[in-house]
User: What shape does this take?
Amino acid sequence: MSSAKTLLRGPALGFPTGFTPVTAKATEATGTHFPSGIDFGLLRPAAGEVMAEASPLETAWVLLHGTAEIECAGQRTRVQRNSLFDEPPTALHVPRDTPVALLNSAPGNEWAVIRTENSRSFAPHLFLPADLRPEYRGAGLAQNACLRNVRLIFDYTNRPEANLVVGEVVNYPGRWSSYPPHHHDQTELYHYRFTDRRGYGHAELGDDVVKVRDGDTTIIPPGHDHAQVSAPGYGMYYLWMIRHLPGNPYQGFTFTAEHQWTLDPAQQGWRPQTLPPGLV
Assistant: This one.
């Protein structure tokens, strides 16, 4: 693996008011972290602040928490999110040079801002919670040890002109996600939050394993197998982001061959026989 960083620690006291860059081309050029092709950061506007821009980059705005109004393409929409874990996302996705205004009327708002280069034109789209259906992957497999809620916001199937893929995962306490381990040709970012700031999990990056906490971000290099697990008692959320490669868009992944047997519901794995009845 490259000597550049693949684990980017979040601020110990949480993200401050204003915009905090996490990955950006300027820092990638210095070799301080593995290149992702994605500019990613967290915006915590002050109450009453209006953010207006027309970025030269394709941009996705994902509401993590709060209440705001979005102005884009002649439409003004009020949006709200109180829980990353219990509510589907709201996300605005726009091509380059698109005027966007975010009116943050209440304190405590937080946005994930995801950008990449893209010369193509396409229509802006606001993804609302009612548009997004949860996908409970892992149900009935491996004694439900990898049951999780996957929320795909957009990918190549519904936004083929985009250079980004964006989604979320809710990882239940003590369980795995991104499992069985899998890999793909494109670099991926995971940004983590927990139901309690004391929470933590472990992330596989190939053969390396790192401990992740609230506000951390991992960069998963191309071709590296990855899977995640959350410590018991703590729900883990991560926002996942991928940039398509030129001529090789992300359209899925390849499972690690040695663990593919866990995808067969008829093979649930070893069950202990020494626990009290009802706990097996």
